[in-house]
Amino acid sequence: MHKSGWMKPGWMKIVALFIFGTSLYGNEVLAQATTAQTPAAPKSGTAGTTAQKAPASPYDRALLRPALLVAKAPATYQVKFTTTKGDFTISVTRAWAPLGADRFYNLVRRHFYDNTAFFRVLRGFVVQWGISAYPPVSAAWSHAPIKDDPVVQSNLRGYITYAMGGANTRTTQVFVNLVDNKRLDSMGFAAFGQVTEGMEVVEALYAGYGEGAPEGQGPEQDKIEKLGKSYLEKDFPQLDTIKTTTLILPPGAGAAQPTPKTPAAKPASPKTTPASQP
What we know:
Blueprint: H1 9-36, E1 71-72, E2 76-83, E3 87-93, H2 98-109, E4 120-122, E5 126-129, H3 135-141, E6 159-162, E7 174-177, E8 191-197, H4 199-204, H5 221-227, H6 229-235, E9 242-248, E10 257-258
Antiparallel strand pairs: 1-10, 2-3, 2-9, 3-8, 4-5, 5-7, 6-7, 6-8
């Protein structure tokens, strides 16, 4: 601080004006700079802003390219299903239906069935599932049917088979027989595995909605494909769903190998399902 009398009054006025003007001009420049530059504040310890990552996909992006998911399955393998009702395990035997077993193997490896619903549960007949919870995935697989396998194993209680709408229309939908449905054998439904643990869980899955629309009060398959799980959660909230699937390989099973290419099957029928009546 300056001592009183050190500077003459006239000079003090000039200096005060100079300081005031400089301060005002500096504030204007600072305000302009602040307005022109609006970067987000960097996190502590960083030199600048960090780009935001895109949200993670809820499904494996490889599922959008079915043509690449053609690995050959082991001779036998198991799949554990963890559901909202409990757990059950399916044991697959490739020799029963090689093409079907390979397709199921590739779908499970990429967690296709995670978050899907048991949308068709008919007591005394079947439990059906296999439409993706995500419409882009459903759209991709609707155009990827596989050719039929010869029927080697009968559709007995607890055996798993692909749903289909005619010859060479199998894609991703499967069903477990709740009773012996041998009549399906002559229709070309080739079983490829069986429930070896937790059949009581399969039989306890929610069946209150019955057959799908328009025959019954259950979900419409077309709407599941187009709208995904949001449609089911809104209109059919009591359906049981698959939380996760776990692939269990036999000891010594090697890395997955691509299967030989086979001629493409015809496009799948819009509705794939075993008829509930003979």
